[in-house]
Amino acid sequence: MPATIVLKPGKDQSPRRRHPWVFSGAIAKLKGEAKEGDAVRVEASNGELLGTGHFSPGGSIAVRLFDFGPEAQLPSPAFWENSLRNAYQLRQRLGLAAPGGTTDVYRLTHGEGDGLPGLIIDVYGDTAVIQAHSPGMYFARHEVASALQAVLGERLRAIYDKSAETVPAQAVPDAQNGYLFGESSGREHLVTENGQQFAVDWETGQKTGFFIDQRDNRALLARYAPGRRVLNTFCYTGGFSVYALEAGASLVHSVDASKKAIELTDRNAQLSGHAERHAAYAQDVQHFFKNPVSEEPYDLIILDPPAYAKHLSARHNALMGYKRLNLAGLRHLAPGGLLFTFSCSQVVSPELFEGAVLAAAIEAGRPARILHRLTQPADHPVSLFHPEGAYLKGLVLAVE
Protein backbone atom coordinates (compact mmCIF):
# COMPACT_ATOMS: atom_id res chain seq x y z
CA MET A 1 0.00 0.00 0.00
CA PRO A 2 1.54 3.36 -0.99
CA ALA A 3 2.02 6.04 1.61
CA THR A 4 -0.47 8.89 1.81
CA ILE A 5 0.22 12.59 2.20
CA VAL A 6 -2.56 14.36 4.12
CA LEU A 7 -2.89 18.09 3.53
CA LYS A 8 -3.77 20.72 6.10
CA PRO A 9 -7.32 22.07 6.09
CA GLY A 10 -7.71 24.69 3.36
CA LYS A 11 -4.57 23.57 1.50
CA ASP A 12 -6.42 21.43 -1.03
CA GLN A 13 -7.35 24.18 -3.51
CA SER A 14 -4.14 24.00 -5.50
CA PRO A 15 -4.39 20.28 -6.40
CA ARG A 16 -8.12 20.72 -7.01
CA ARG A 17 -7.13 23.26 -9.67
CA ARG A 18 -4.74 20.64 -11.07
CA HIS A 19 -1.60 22.54 -10.14
CA PRO A 20 1.08 19.83 -9.97
CA TRP A 21 3.12 21.12 -7.02
CA VAL A 22 2.38 20.36 -3.36
CA PHE A 23 4.59 22.46 -1.10
CA SER A 24 5.97 21.10 2.14
CA GLY A 25 4.14 23.74 4.19
CA ALA A 26 0.79 22.39 3.01
CA ILE A 27 1.35 18.93 4.50
CA ALA A 28 -0.28 17.93 7.79
CA LYS A 29 1.07 14.39 8.06
CA LEU A 30 2.40 11.34 6.25
CA LYS A 31 0.52 8.07 6.68
CA GLY A 32 2.77 5.10 6.09
CA GLU A 33 6.40 5.15 4.98
CA ALA A 34 7.79 6.92 1.92
CA LYS A 35 11.31 7.71 0.83
CA GLU A 36 12.72 10.11 -1.74
CA GLY A 37 11.16 9.54 -5.16
CA ASP A 38 8.40 7.16 -4.06
CA ALA A 39 4.95 7.44 -5.61
CA VAL A 40 2.41 8.58 -3.00
CA ARG A 41 -1.27 9.40 -2.68
CA VAL A 42 -2.31 12.94 -1.72
CA GLU A 43 -5.50 13.42 0.31
CA ALA A 44 -7.45 16.42 1.56
CA SER A 45 -7.94 16.73 5.31
CA ASN A 46 -11.34 15.00 4.95
CA GLY A 47 -9.75 11.91 3.38
CA GLU A 48 -10.71 12.71 -0.25
CA LEU A 49 -8.14 11.54 -2.80
CA LEU A 50 -6.79 14.56 -4.69
CA GLY A 51 -4.06 12.95 -6.77
CA THR A 52 -0.89 10.91 -6.95
CA GLY A 53 2.70 11.99 -7.45
CA HIS A 54 6.38 11.62 -6.60
CA PHE A 55 7.52 12.40 -3.06
CA SER A 56 10.52 14.67 -2.37
CA PRO A 57 10.70 15.17 1.40
CA GLY A 58 13.85 17.29 1.33
CA GLY A 59 12.62 20.10 -0.92
CA SER A 60 10.13 22.94 -0.79
CA ILE A 61 8.10 21.12 -3.48
CA ALA A 62 7.25 17.98 -1.51
CA VAL A 63 5.10 16.22 -4.13
CA ARG A 64 4.96 16.57 -7.91
CA LEU A 65 1.55 15.37 -9.03
CA PHE A 66 1.08 13.46 -12.28
CA ASP A 67 -2.56 12.38 -11.84
CA PHE A 68 -5.54 14.12 -10.28
CA GLY A 69 -8.96 13.46 -8.78
CA PRO A 70 -10.60 10.59 -6.92
CA GLU A 71 -9.63 8.11 -9.65
CA ALA A 72 -5.95 9.10 -9.70
CA GLN A 73 -3.67 6.17 -10.49
CA LEU A 74 -0.18 5.23 -9.39
CA PRO A 75 2.40 4.78 -12.17
CA SER A 76 2.31 1.49 -14.03
CA PRO A 77 3.61 0.33 -17.43
CA ALA A 78 0.25 1.34 -18.92
CA PHE A 79 0.48 4.79 -17.29
CA TRP A 80 3.91 5.52 -18.75
CA GLU A 81 2.99 4.24 -22.20
CA ASN A 82 -0.29 6.17 -22.31
CA SER A 83 1.37 9.37 -21.13
CA LEU A 84 4.18 9.17 -23.68
CA ARG A 85 1.79 8.17 -26.47
CA ASN A 86 -0.37 11.19 -25.71
CA ALA A 87 2.70 13.46 -25.86
CA TYR A 88 3.90 11.83 -29.09
CA GLN A 89 0.52 12.18 -30.77
CA LEU A 90 0.53 15.90 -29.99
CA ARG A 91 3.95 16.25 -31.66
CA GLN A 92 2.63 14.35 -34.66
CA ARG A 93 -0.27 16.80 -34.93
CA LEU A 94 2.28 19.61 -34.77
CA GLY A 95 4.09 18.07 -37.74
CA LEU A 96 7.28 17.48 -35.76
CA ALA A 97 7.41 13.70 -35.71
CA ALA A 98 6.65 13.00 -39.36
CA PRO A 99 9.05 10.54 -41.07
CA GLY A 100 10.91 12.22 -43.91
CA GLY A 101 9.99 15.71 -42.68
CA THR A 102 12.28 18.73 -42.57
CA THR A 103 12.64 18.51 -38.76
CA ASP A 104 13.70 15.39 -36.85
CA VAL A 105 14.68 17.06 -33.57
CA TYR A 106 11.94 17.97 -31.11
CA ARG A 107 10.89 17.80 -27.45
CA LEU A 108 8.71 14.78 -26.76
CA THR A 109 7.86 15.53 -23.12
CA HIS A 110 8.11 18.90 -21.41
CA GLY A 111 7.63 18.13 -17.72
CA GLU A 112 4.51 19.68 -16.25
CA GLY A 113 3.38 20.81 -19.70
CA ASP A 114 2.82 17.16 -20.62
CA GLY A 115 1.59 16.02 -17.20
CA LEU A 116 4.97 14.47 -16.31
CA PRO A 117 6.62 16.83 -13.79
CA GLY A 118 10.37 16.48 -13.73
CA LEU A 119 10.68 14.58 -17.01
CA ILE A 120 12.27 15.99 -20.16
CA ILE A 121 12.67 13.84 -23.27
CA ASP A 122 14.23 15.26 -26.43
CA VAL A 123 14.31 13.30 -29.68
CA TYR A 124 17.29 13.60 -32.02
CA GLY A 125 16.50 11.60 -35.12
CA ASP A 126 16.49 7.99 -33.94
CA THR A 127 17.81 8.72 -30.43
CA ALA A 128 15.83 9.90 -27.39
CA VAL A 129 17.64 11.77 -24.61
CA ILE A 130 16.10 11.69 -21.13
CA GLN A 131 16.74 14.26 -18.42
CA ALA A 132 15.07 13.70 -15.05
CA HIS A 133 14.77 16.80 -12.87
CA SER A 134 13.25 14.96 -9.90
CA PRO A 135 14.32 11.82 -8.02
CA GLY A 136 10.99 10.13 -8.77
CA MET A 137 11.45 10.47 -12.52
CA TYR A 138 15.07 9.36 -12.25
CA PHE A 139 14.13 6.20 -10.39
CA ALA A 140 11.45 5.52 -13.04
CA ARG A 141 13.86 5.95 -15.97
CA HIS A 142 13.88 2.27 -16.93
CA GLU A 143 10.08 2.15 -17.02
CA VAL A 144 10.11 5.35 -19.09
CA ALA A 145 12.65 3.80 -21.47
CA SER A 146 10.47 0.71 -21.95
CA ALA A 147 7.44 2.90 -22.67
CA LEU A 148 9.48 4.94 -25.17
CA GLN A 149 10.36 1.79 -27.07
CA ALA A 150 6.70 0.78 -27.16
CA VAL A 151 5.55 4.20 -28.41
CA LEU A 152 8.30 5.01 -30.94
CA GLY A 153 8.91 1.46 -32.10
CA GLU A 154 11.36 1.06 -34.98
CA ARG A 155 11.94 4.82 -35.16
CA LEU A 156 13.99 4.52 -31.97
CA ARG A 157 17.49 3.04 -32.01
CA ALA A 158 18.91 4.39 -28.75
CA ILE A 159 17.90 6.02 -25.45
CA TYR A 160 20.48 8.08 -23.59
CA ASP A 161 19.95 9.08 -19.96
CA LYS A 162 21.57 12.43 -19.17
CA SER A 163 20.06 12.99 -15.73
CA ALA A 164 23.28 13.21 -13.72
CA GLU A 165 23.42 16.97 -14.36
CA THR A 166 19.79 17.70 -13.51
CA VAL A 167 18.55 15.33 -10.80
CA PRO A 168 19.17 16.78 -7.30
CA ALA A 169 22.61 15.57 -6.25
CA GLN A 170 21.73 15.49 -2.55
CA ALA A 171 18.89 13.06 -3.30
CA VAL A 172 20.65 10.91 -5.91
CA PRO A 173 24.40 11.29 -5.31
CA ASP A 174 25.31 8.32 -7.50
CA ALA A 175 23.43 9.36 -10.67
CA GLN A 176 25.33 8.49 -13.84
CA ASN A 177 24.74 9.25 -17.49
CA GLY A 178 24.56 6.39 -19.95
CA TYR A 179 22.59 4.47 -22.56
CA LEU A 180 19.44 2.73 -21.34
CA PHE A 181 18.80 1.18 -24.74
CA GLY A 182 21.05 0.83 -27.77
CA GLU A 183 24.40 2.58 -27.89
CA SER A 184 26.34 5.32 -29.64
CA SER A 185 27.08 4.56 -33.26
CA GLY A 186 30.49 6.18 -32.91
CA ARG A 187 29.65 8.46 -35.81
CA GLU A 188 28.90 12.15 -35.79
CA HIS A 189 25.32 12.78 -34.68
CA LEU A 190 23.54 14.85 -37.34
CA VAL A 191 19.98 16.16 -37.07
CA THR A 192 17.79 18.35 -39.25
CA GLU A 193 15.74 21.36 -38.15
CA ASN A 194 13.64 23.22 -40.71
CA GLY A 195 15.90 21.77 -43.38
CA GLN A 196 19.09 22.97 -41.65
CA GLN A 197 21.64 20.33 -40.66
CA PHE A 198 23.34 20.37 -37.26
CA ALA A 199 25.91 18.25 -35.45
CA VAL A 200 24.70 17.51 -31.91
CA ASP A 201 26.61 16.16 -28.92
CA TRP A 202 24.05 14.88 -26.43
CA GLU A 203 26.63 12.97 -24.39
CA THR A 204 28.87 15.87 -23.31
CA GLY A 205 27.04 18.98 -24.59
CA GLN A 206 24.88 21.38 -22.57
CA LYS A 207 21.29 20.48 -21.71
CA THR A 208 20.39 17.51 -23.91
CA GLY A 209 22.72 18.68 -26.70
CA PHE A 210 20.80 21.40 -28.55
CA PHE A 211 18.58 24.34 -27.65
CA ILE A 212 15.42 23.02 -29.27
CA ASP A 213 13.31 25.74 -27.65
CA GLN A 214 14.65 28.40 -30.04
CA ARG A 215 13.54 26.65 -33.24
CA ASP A 216 10.70 29.05 -34.10
CA ASN A 217 12.77 32.08 -33.11
CA ARG A 218 15.63 30.95 -35.34
CA ALA A 219 13.18 30.70 -38.23
CA LEU A 220 11.98 34.24 -37.50
CA LEU A 221 15.55 35.53 -37.48
CA ALA A 222 16.07 34.07 -40.96
CA ARG A 223 13.44 36.51 -42.26
CA TYR A 224 15.53 39.49 -41.11
CA ALA A 225 19.09 38.25 -41.67
CA PRO A 226 19.61 38.68 -45.47
CA GLY A 227 22.35 41.19 -46.20
CA ARG A 228 22.98 42.02 -42.53
CA ARG A 229 26.09 41.85 -40.38
CA VAL A 230 25.07 39.49 -37.57
CA LEU A 231 26.50 38.90 -34.10
CA ASN A 232 25.31 35.80 -32.24
CA THR A 233 26.35 35.88 -28.57
CA PHE A 234 26.16 32.90 -26.21
CA CYS A 235 25.93 31.02 -29.49
CA TYR A 236 26.41 27.51 -28.03
CA THR A 237 26.49 25.34 -31.19
CA GLY A 238 25.54 28.14 -33.56
CA GLY A 239 21.84 27.59 -34.17
CA PHE A 240 21.04 31.24 -34.90
CA SER A 241 24.30 31.57 -36.82
CA VAL A 242 23.47 28.78 -39.25
CA TYR A 243 20.01 30.20 -39.96
CA ALA A 244 21.52 33.64 -40.59
CA LEU A 245 24.15 32.23 -42.94
CA GLU A 246 21.63 30.19 -44.88
CA ALA A 247 19.34 33.23 -45.16
CA GLY A 248 22.09 35.31 -46.76
CA ALA A 249 23.66 37.35 -43.97
CA SER A 250 26.71 39.17 -45.29
CA LEU A 251 28.75 38.22 -42.22
CA VAL A 252 28.12 36.25 -39.01
CA HIS A 253 30.24 36.37 -35.86
CA SER A 254 29.56 33.77 -33.15
CA VAL A 255 30.75 34.17 -29.55
CA ASP A 256 30.69 31.71 -26.64
CA ALA A 257 32.95 31.18 -23.63
CA SER A 258 33.07 27.42 -24.28
CA LYS A 259 35.78 26.26 -26.69
CA LYS A 260 33.89 23.01 -27.25
CA ALA A 261 30.75 24.96 -28.19
CA ILE A 262 32.76 27.07 -30.63
CA GLU A 263 34.17 23.90 -32.23
CA LEU A 264 30.62 22.66 -32.83
CA THR A 265 29.58 26.09 -34.09
CA ASP A 266 32.40 26.01 -36.65
CA ARG A 267 31.37 22.49 -37.66
CA ASN A 268 27.75 23.55 -38.12
CA ALA A 269 28.83 26.56 -40.19
CA GLN A 270 30.73 24.12 -42.41
CA LEU A 271 27.65 21.91 -42.72
CA SER A 272 25.69 24.97 -43.88
CA GLY A 273 28.07 25.44 -46.80
CA HIS A 274 28.65 29.10 -45.92
CA ALA A 275 31.63 28.96 -43.57
CA GLU A 276 33.48 31.61 -45.57
CA ARG A 277 31.09 34.26 -44.17
CA HIS A 278 31.45 33.05 -40.59
CA ALA A 279 33.94 33.58 -37.76
CA ALA A 280 33.68 32.19 -34.22
CA TYR A 281 35.33 33.40 -31.01
CA ALA A 282 35.80 31.45 -27.77
CA GLN A 283 35.49 34.45 -25.46
CA ASP A 284 33.43 35.78 -22.60
CA VAL A 285 30.68 37.84 -24.22
CA GLN A 286 31.24 40.96 -22.13
CA HIS A 287 34.97 40.75 -22.87
CA PHE A 288 34.12 40.53 -26.58
CA PHE A 289 31.95 43.64 -26.33
CA LYS A 290 34.77 45.53 -24.60
CA ASN A 291 37.31 44.34 -27.18
CA PRO A 292 35.38 44.01 -30.47
CA VAL A 293 37.05 42.43 -33.48
CA SER A 294 35.70 45.23 -35.66
CA GLU A 295 34.83 48.85 -35.05
CA GLU A 296 31.98 48.58 -37.54
CA PRO A 297 28.65 48.00 -35.73
CA TYR A 298 26.42 45.02 -36.38
CA ASP A 299 23.04 45.20 -38.10
CA LEU A 300 21.53 42.37 -36.06
CA ILE A 301 22.58 41.10 -32.63
CA ILE A 302 21.32 38.04 -30.74
CA LEU A 303 21.60 38.06 -26.94
CA ASP A 304 20.64 34.58 -25.68
CA PRO A 305 22.40 34.09 -22.32
CA PRO A 306 21.98 31.14 -19.94
CA ALA A 307 19.56 31.56 -17.05
CA TYR A 308 20.80 34.39 -14.88
CA ALA A 309 18.48 33.40 -12.03
CA LYS A 310 17.19 29.96 -11.08
CA HIS A 311 15.76 31.07 -7.73
CA LEU A 312 13.87 34.12 -6.51
CA SER A 313 16.81 35.13 -4.33
CA ALA A 314 18.90 35.74 -7.46
CA ARG A 315 16.26 37.68 -9.41
CA HIS A 316 17.47 41.21 -8.60
CA ASN A 317 21.04 40.43 -9.64
CA ALA A 318 19.70 38.75 -12.78
CA LEU A 319 17.78 41.86 -13.78
CA MET A 320 20.94 43.95 -13.35
CA GLY A 321 22.76 41.40 -15.49
CA TYR A 322 20.16 41.61 -18.25
CA LYS A 323 20.40 45.40 -18.19
CA ARG A 324 24.22 45.34 -18.51
CA LEU A 325 24.13 42.80 -21.32
CA ASN A 326 21.49 44.64 -23.33
CA LEU A 327 23.28 47.93 -22.80
CA ALA A 328 26.45 46.43 -24.26
CA GLY A 329 24.51 44.99 -27.18
CA LEU A 330 22.79 48.29 -27.94
CA ARG A 331 26.13 50.09 -28.00
CA HIS A 332 27.35 47.79 -30.78
CA LEU A 333 24.17 47.88 -32.88
CA ALA A 334 24.01 50.07 -35.98
CA PRO A 335 21.19 52.64 -36.37
CA GLY A 336 18.21 50.84 -37.86
CA GLY A 337 19.52 47.55 -36.47
CA LEU A 338 17.60 44.68 -34.88
CA LEU A 339 18.13 43.25 -31.42
CA PHE A 340 16.94 39.71 -30.62
CA THR A 341 17.18 39.50 -26.82
CA PHE A 342 16.12 36.64 -24.55
CA SER A 343 15.76 35.43 -20.98
CA CYS A 344 15.26 31.79 -20.02
CA SER A 345 15.07 32.54 -16.28
CA GLN A 346 11.68 31.22 -15.12
CA VAL A 347 11.63 33.51 -12.07
CA VAL A 348 12.02 36.60 -14.28
CA SER A 349 8.60 37.55 -15.68
CA PRO A 350 8.18 39.00 -19.18
CA GLU A 351 7.32 42.34 -17.60
CA LEU A 352 10.47 42.41 -15.46
CA PHE A 353 12.63 41.35 -18.40
CA GLU A 354 11.12 44.03 -20.62
CA GLY A 355 11.79 46.56 -17.85
CA ALA A 356 15.47 45.60 -17.76
CA VAL A 357 15.75 46.01 -21.53
CA LEU A 358 13.93 49.35 -21.28
CA ALA A 359 16.42 50.56 -18.66
CA ALA A 360 19.28 49.59 -20.98
CA ALA A 361 17.73 51.48 -23.90
CA ILE A 362 17.23 54.59 -21.75
CA GLU A 363 20.85 54.54 -20.57
CA ALA A 364 22.09 53.94 -24.12
CA GLY A 365 19.91 56.77 -25.43
CA ARG A 366 18.57 54.52 -28.22
CA PRO A 367 14.91 54.82 -29.26
CA ALA A 368 13.53 51.33 -29.85
CA ARG A 369 10.29 49.70 -30.95
CA ILE A 370 9.08 46.19 -30.13
CA LEU A 371 8.46 44.19 -33.30
CA HIS A 372 7.88 40.80 -31.68
CA ARG A 373 7.41 39.28 -28.24
CA LEU A 374 8.80 35.74 -28.35
CA THR A 375 8.33 32.57 -26.34
CA GLN A 376 8.96 28.82 -26.48
CA PRO A 377 7.62 26.62 -29.31
CA ALA A 378 4.61 24.31 -29.25
CA ASP A 379 6.59 21.19 -28.34
CA HIS A 380 7.43 22.99 -25.06
CA PRO A 381 3.76 23.37 -24.01
CA VAL A 382 2.66 25.19 -20.89
CA SER A 383 -0.09 23.63 -18.81
CA LEU A 384 -2.97 26.04 -18.31
CA PHE A 385 -2.88 24.95 -14.65
CA HIS A 386 0.88 25.54 -14.31
CA PRO A 387 1.79 28.96 -15.76
CA GLU A 388 5.26 28.66 -14.22
CA GLY A 389 6.13 26.47 -17.21
CA ALA A 390 6.39 29.55 -19.44
CA TYR A 391 10.10 30.22 -18.97
CA LEU A 392 11.42 31.53 -22.31
CA LYS A 393 10.72 35.12 -23.20
CA GLY A 394 12.23 37.32 -25.86
CA LEU A 395 11.94 40.62 -27.68
CA VAL A 396 12.81 41.71 -31.18
CA LEU A 397 13.59 45.43 -31.16
CA ALA A 398 14.04 47.85 -34.04
CA VAL A 399 16.59 50.31 -32.71
CA GLU A 400 17.20 53.84 -34.04
Q: In short, what is this structure?
A:
27% of the residues lie in helices and 28% in strands.
Account of the protein in words:
By secondary structure, the chain is of the alpha/beta class. It folds into three domains: 4-68, PUA domain (Archaeosine Trna-guanine Transglycosylase, Chain: A, domain 4, Roll); 77-187, 2-Layer Sandwich (Transcription Regulator spoIIAA); 211-399, 3-Layer(aba) Sandwich (Rossmann fold). The protein has ten helices and 20 strands. The protein has a seven-stranded mixed β-sheet, sandwiched between helices. Strands 2-6-5-4-1-3 form a six-stranded mixed β-sheet. The chain has a five-stranded mixed β-sheet with strand order 7-8-9-10-11. Strand 4 and strand 5 (49-55) form a beta hairpin. The longest helix is centred in the first third of the chain and has 17 residues, at 77-93. The mean pLDDT is 96.
